[in-house]
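The data are quoted verbatim for reference:
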Amino acid sequence: MNILVTGGAGYIGSHCCAQLIAAGHRPFILDNFSNAKLAVVDHIERVAGTRPRWLRGDVRDAALVTALLRDEGIEAVIHFVGLKAVGESVQQPLAYYDNNVQGSLVLLQAMRETGVRTLVFSSSATVYSASDRMPLREDAPTSATSPYGRSKLMVEHVLADLAAADPAMSLTALRYFNPVGAHPSGLLGEDPEGPLNNLMPFLAQVAVGRRNQLAVFGNDYPTPDGTGVRDYIHVLDLADGHLAALNHAHGRPGLHVFNLGSGQGHSVLALIAAFGQACGRELPYTIAPRRAGDLAAYWADPAKAERMLGWRVRRSLAEMCADTWHWQSTHPNGYSS
């Protein structure tokens, strides 16, 4: 299929484009490159053997998106575009609602005008209410606690309403847990702009010498070692989940919601130890106070995705760390290396 991939030059989008090409699809990347580099397109070509078509543009540009869907014969859309830092969203809520919610509304309207009926949407586990009951299933209560999470939940509500109003639309929301890792070739990986918000890229930068040490926020949680427990998923497993969701959704109208996670949690200290094994040395860290709003532990129940999509994670925590280290050690300054 001809597939529009919004945000396709980003961390998850680039890996998904590589997997789409490997599966015989033809991705077309729409990205404004505000949090991605042009070099990513070259790296996708080196990995996949085919250069994806791409255009620098904003998903909020209705005329551009409508023309792109029509002129490129787009048959389905995978929608990654979105600002994604929880802390930043608290400081800049309007930017998050404009980009994440308004951008999705423009895209959906353009899809209806051009007859494109299949969408796979990048949602988040942050849509779930704070809970001590684990694992989280898709029918667990939702109530996001940050503008970022609320923006994702708002789009999910829009998808539900649109699916009810237009029986021709096939709309899938994939609730990610914690994507980490890199392509095993070492050619694609995470290269965040600005302050780091996620644990794995911070660890990788400590390991490569760009940062002195890691801060572990809290060691007094009710978990086996006192540090927070999260559900980590290899970015290629996540990409494969999008292909499975696309195959399931195309030609199957309605709203479809799936968790994409491993179904098990790993603590911060366990991740530090695993990364130390991957890079061959112990990584320095300090204990800092808890961050407001952090949960002690959460992980997915991925049974629905396995049952309905035939998808499950296949890559271990050790592989996540080894692939991240391969990427970071061969690209110490990211795509600028």
User: Anything to note?
Assistant: The mean pLDDT is 96. Residues 228 and 295 are 7 Å apart (CA to CA). The radius of gyration is 19 Å.
